[in-house]
Structures are given as structure tokens and as C-alpha cells.
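User: My advisor asked me to double-check a structure prediction for Zinc/manganese transport system substrate-binding protein before group meeting. I don't want to rely on an old file, so could you generate it fresh from this sequence?
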Amino acid sequence: MLNRRLLLALTAGLSLAAVAASIPAHAAGERVKAVASFSILGDLVREVGGDRVEVATLVGANGDAHVYEPTPADARKLGEAQLLFENGLAFESWLPRLLRASGFAGIRVVVSEGITPRAFRGEDDGHDHADGHGGGHADHRHGVEDPHAWQNVANAVIYVKNIAAALEKADPDHAAAYRERATAYAARLAALDAKLKARFGAIPEARRKVVTTHDAFGYFGSAYGIAFLGPRGVSTESEASASDVARIIDQIREDGITAVFLENITSPKLTEQIASATGVKVGGRLYSDALAAPGEPASTYIGLVESNAARLIEALGGTP
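Assistant: Sure, here is a fresh prediction for Zinc/manganese transport system substrate-binding protein from the sequence you gave:
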């Protein structure tokens, strides 16, 4: 019966506060119950929270947040949580509906607060920004600001600070521990950021051009001096047309691009088609909006960034 009521609320947008009841107040010795909207954010919360925080993630490893459909189990997780960590910048277009269904009564934490948002490229780049990725699905609307801010490691440091501040407020008895973990993790991120700038900076600028099929790497490109190119109107929600493919093939040939990359949340079909037509190599898999499965190198945020950087540097002829 409960599952049916939750499912009805998810599909109709009705409130289920009675199902979720009230969130129990945090008591000394209890773990903080937190929900993260997607896997990358869940890893950051775990790094800061350590054993003091029980983290549930909604969109899991290799999951595509752009086409995600919440489940009754998600509503239950959220209804029991004290904290919800979300990216913001219109990334989680499905979240308002889930919040209504869950009766969530805790604290919402927008981890991108304080970053400088990057605008999606102008309409002359060929991207239909009605939904941020050209799929034309209003339910997955992003708006004009690029939500993929975590792709710049310096922004991840801001995410970590916001996560720590929220945990300190929710669990003041362990505030010092959260601050200590956040400081140590932020130092690792700062070192990674500096390393990436040095390694990509050593590659001639003319070679720093790659093709991907999803406009998710703008922050990474701006931070580390790489031009990420993609075909018009292609999103994780729709397939490329013949004209899309022809356009990107022309661009590869004109710009002398040497590598095309597929992503962990998209089908490899388009990437393989472009590579076959142009003779450029498939540089490997990049992780954009989701971590890899547990046990794989990109199953943590730092592992994701390091994996992406290694593949890009190799494809661009740099020194790993």
C-alpha cells in the first residue's frame, strides 16, 4: 500500500507528508542521515562526513541525471533524511516533484552556492539551450547556466566547504571533525588542481581540442585550457541526426582534432561513428555526470578527475 501511495505522488506531484511523518531530531551518538542527489556529490559528502554521516545517493554510478525518474524508494530515503545535498543550477530538474512526494522536512543544501556559474555557449554554437542539452524535454530543463560546476576542481573545493558548513550546523557536537576532514580533503583537491594546470599547460594550445557528445566539460575546459567540441543539438536524451554527424566530422577535419571521447552515461554509437568516418582515435571513456561503479578507478570524485585527465593528456600527446 505504501509503495502505491508513493508512486501516485511521484506521478501526480501530490504531497505525502503523512507518509514521511517528521524527521527525527539528531541525537548525540546517532549518525546524521543525508541524501545526495547524484553519485559525485555523494562521494564528496562521504569524504567530509566520514563515519558520522550515513549517505544515500539518488542517481547512482553510471546514472544519467538528465533523464532520471525517481522511484518510491527514493521518496522513502528522502523522507527519512535530515539533510539533502543538491547541486543546484537547475541540474536536478526532477527534484521538486520528488520533494513533494517524500514530504521531506529537513535542510536543503545547494552545494554550488558561491561558485561563479558558467553560461552555456551562445546559440551560434549550435546547442539548443531550452533544456541545456538540446533534447527538447522540458522536464529536464537546465536554463542558461551550466550546472556541471564540479568539473573544475577549484569549484569542488567550494562544494566541500558548503558540505562541511551544513554538517557542522546539523551536528555541532562533531563540528571540529567535519572541519578537519574538509580541510584535509580540500588540500588534496587544491594539489590536484595545480597538477592538472601544469600538465595541460605543457601541451601546445593548438593540440588541446577534443570532441565529446555531451556539453558537460565546459568548466573543465575553462580551468585547464581545453576546447571541448560537440555536435549541434546532441544530448544524453536524444540521438544525433545525420546532419549533426556531418557537421562534427567537418569540424574535426577543419580543426585537425586528434581524438573523440565517449562518456559513461551515453551510448558509444555516435562516438564510434564519428571515429570511423574521420580516422581519429577514440580516446577512451570520460566520466561526466556520474562516478564509475564501485571498485573502478573513477568510483570516487578524485579518481574520476584523474581518470579523465589521464585519458585526455594521452590523447593530446602530453606527458601523463
